[in-house]
Amino acid sequence: MLDATDRSGGTATADPRAAGTELVVAASSADSAPPLTRVLLSPWFRLSLLVALLAVAAGCVLWFEPQRLLTRGWPPQLGGASAALVFATAYGLCTVAFVPRPLLNLAAGALFGSGVGLGTALAGTVLGAGVSFGLGRVLGQDALRPLLRGRWLNAADGQLSRHGFRSMMAARLFPGVPFWAANYCAAVSRMGWLPFLLATALGSVPNTAAYAVAGARASSPTSPAFLIATASIAVPLLAGAVVAWRKRHHLRDS
Question: Engineering a disulfide at 184: which of 67, 136, 189, 236 sits with its beta carbon 3.0 to 4.6 angstroms away?
Fold first, then answer.
């Protein structure tokens, strides 16, 4: 290869044969990467890792039984802001492990009251959604996207990819869509992080507030606040069931 600058002060050009040799060496070193590395980076290995992580998380939930918070209360050594922070973190991790959010929302209201319970539950909701979305995006998207087949799956993927915020808002407001399912479907699509998290935070407010109030007023089931909260839970569930029943033929034909 010639020097970078010739004696006349001009810039010299590189020898094509030397450049070609460098490319061949780079390609051969990429091909000679250890087989284990290629396996670890493969989409299917990452998907298997995601499934294993979720299985372990679900097993931990079954072992520790977080629903005991509703019967035994919060550990007495934790209180104040630290208790709310710990609960929000535990809430988020539990949603990743498929613990139903209504149970966690009731616990938040029973332990912290309506206002603080709503805040901690919403923080845990956004945290859990973000963790699930990140896991699905990093570990599952490359393997699952090629498997999208059928008119219904393609339509759902297109809706989430093109209208992410609006679609996720509807999924959070509609009580018939499981929280974990919406998270991982969004992760497989091309939805961005910001519309996903923002729609999750805003769309989860009404349902979360109803459960938090119901949990806070569970000791007085005849109070107006408890009755209104219960109605706010039951009416959307009933409306969702009616809509799903009326649309069953369209879903079957998709």
Answer: 136
Overall size of the chain counted in residues: 254
pLDDT, tens digit, for every residue of 26-59? Answer: 444 445 557 666 655 666 777 777 788 888 877 8
Give the single-character DSSP code of 14: P
Mean residue pLDDT across the chain: 76
Whose CA is closest to 174, among 196, 209, 208, 207? 207
DSSP state of 138: I
Angstrom CA distances, 157 to 133, 206, 245, stand at 15, 26, 23
Alpha-carbon 49 to chain mean position: 16
Which among 177, 178, 234 is positioned nearest to 211, based on CA atoms?
A: 234
Tens of pLDDT, residues 140-153: 766 666 666 656 56
Measured CA to CA, the distance from residue 166 to residue 159 in angstroms comes to: 9
Instruction: Note if the pTM is more than 0.85.
Output: no
Evaluate whether 109 touches 211 at the Cβ level (below 8 Å).
Answer: yes
Distance of alpha carbon 55 from alpha carbon 81, whole angstroms: 31
Residue pair 188/135 in contact by the 8 Å Cβ criterion: no
